[in-house]
């Protein structure tokens, strides 16, 4: 999947033993401006299944995940925690002006 044009990164997670599904979850990060990758990814997964004789590959879901409001809040708060005091003062002054 990393070879698909428009893909920036691919990572995987083992599904938990308590999950109703067994296997792994692949997380694909698109490159900036990549557009919709559903078709190229589905095709790449189908090709991978066929190259293995159809054994061991079953795609159960292909979906686009958007960050939640909580994800956005955490990233904003985390970025704010990494600002130096001088930068914080400049940012506050810029907001007040």
Task: Give a structural overview.
It is a single chain. This protein has 97 residues and is α+β, with helices and mostly antiparallel strands. 40% of the residues lie in helices and 15% in strands. The chain has three helices and two strands; from the N terminus they run ββααα. The chain has helices spanning 38-51, 69-81, 85-96; strands at residues 7-14, 24-30. It has a two-stranded antiparallel ribbon with strand order 1-2. The longest helix is centred in the middle third of the chain and has 14 residues, at 38-51. The chain starts with 6 loop residues before the first strand and ends with a helix. The relative contact order is 0.11.
DSSP strand count: 2
Q: Report the end-to-end length measured between terminal Cα atoms.
A: 48 Å
* Structural class determined from secondary elements: alpha+beta
Largest sheet: 2 strands, antiparallel
Annotate the secondary structure layout.
Elements: E1 7-14, E2 24-30, H1 38-51, H2 69-81, H3 85-96
Antiparallel strand pairs: 1-2
Tell me briefly what this model is.
With 97 residues, the protein is α+β, with helices and mostly antiparallel strands.
Features:
40% helix, two-stranded antiparallel sheet, alpha+beta, disordered C terminus, 97 residues
